[in-house]
Amino acid sequence: MRADNTRPVPRPGVLAIEAYVPGKSSAPGAAKIYKLSSNETPLGPPPAAIEAFKNAADELALYPDGSSKPLREAIAGRFGLDPARIICGSGSDEILSLITNAYMGPGDEGLYSEHGFLVYKLAILAAGGTPVVAPEKNLTTDVDALLARVTPKTKIVYLANPNNPTGTYIPFEEVKRLHAGLPKNVLLVLDAAYAEYVRRNDYAAGIELVSEFENVVMTRTFSKIYGLALVRLGWCYAPAGVADALNRIRGPFNVNGPAMAAGIAAIGDESHIAKAIAHNERWLPWLTTEIEKLGLKVTPSVGNFLLIHFPKTGKTAKEADAFLSQNGLILRSVAAYGLPDALRLTVGQEDANRHLVGTLAKFMGA
Ligand SMILES: *Cc1c(COP(=O)(O)O)cnc(C)c1O
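Above: the input record for the complex with pyridoxal-5'-phosphate. Below: its predicted structure, written as C-alpha cells.
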C-alpha cells in the first residue's frame, strides 16, 4: 500500500471489511409488503413492552443505569443466573464485537463454520484478527472440522446454534465435545439467538457450560422471539473473568433506557413467548411441507426461518427473489453466506405464509 500522509488512513484490515448488508425491507410496486427477510417475529413484542417503551419517554433527560442492573436482574431471575455474570449490549452484535475486541488482535485467529453467521467475520476483521472457516456437512456444523482448524493462534471459536441462515443445529453432546477439544485459553462463544424456538430434547443453549468452565460465553438477543429488534438489545452469560473484561471495554451507558424498560417488560411475559413458539410450531412444518411439494428442497430447520434451495438453471434463486418481490414478498438472499442458489424465508403471519406458498407455486408453474 502506498504511504499516504495527506489524510487519515484506517488501520490495516479495516478496508478489507465488506460492510454487512441487512435484509431488504422494500419491494417497489407491490401493493402490500410481507417482510420475511430478517427473522423478526410476526407476533410483535409483548404489549407490556410497548407500554414500557412509551413510558420511558418521560425520562429522556436522564442517563440510564450504566450497568443495566434492573435488566440483568430480570434476566437472572427468568433464567436462574448470577446477575453479576450477565453483560447487556446494544444487540448481541455489540456483545459479539465486545468479546472479539477483548480477546483478539492482529495475528490472532477467529474460527467459525462455513455458513456461520456473518457478524463473526466482521467482528474478527474489525479487531484486526484473521477469520478461519471450517467446512460443514449437510449445511450443519462439523465439530471435527472445527477442531482440526484450531491452531496456537486461535483465540475464539464462534458457534451459532441453531445457525443462521441454515436453520440447522448440533446436539448439546456435540457442543460439549467441541468444548472438550479446545485448549483452555480458547474462548467458545455460543450464539443462541434462536434458542427459544428449538423443540428438541438433545438441544441446550449452553448455560450449563458457562457455569462450569472459564472459557465459554453464551449470547442471547431480544431481537428475535421477544420482538424488540428495533431497540437493539442483547446479552451474554459469561464466566467472571470474561464479564470483568467486557465491563472494562464496553461503553459506560451502552444500553439505552427505553430498550432496557422494554426488555424487562418483555421477559416478564411468558405467555407471549409461548404464543410465538406455538405459532412457529404450526407454521414451520407447514411451510416446509408445502414448499417441498412444489419440488423445491428445504433444509430442515429448528429456528423461525428456513432455507429454500432453487435449481442452478431455469427457476433460479435470483429469478424467484425477483418474482416474489414483485408480489410483495421479501426474502433474504444468502449469496454472501456462500449459498447463491438459496433464499432464506422467515416464518410469517398466516396470510404471509399462504401468500408465499401460492406465489412460489405460480413461479414454479410459470
Ligand atoms: C439475529 C441474530 C442475532 C441477533 O443480533 P442482534 O444484534 O441481537 O439483533 C445474533 N446471532 C444470530 C445468529 C442471529 O441470527
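Notes for the reader.
The first strand starts at residue 34 and ends at 35.
Residues 187 and 215 are 5 Å apart (CA to CA).
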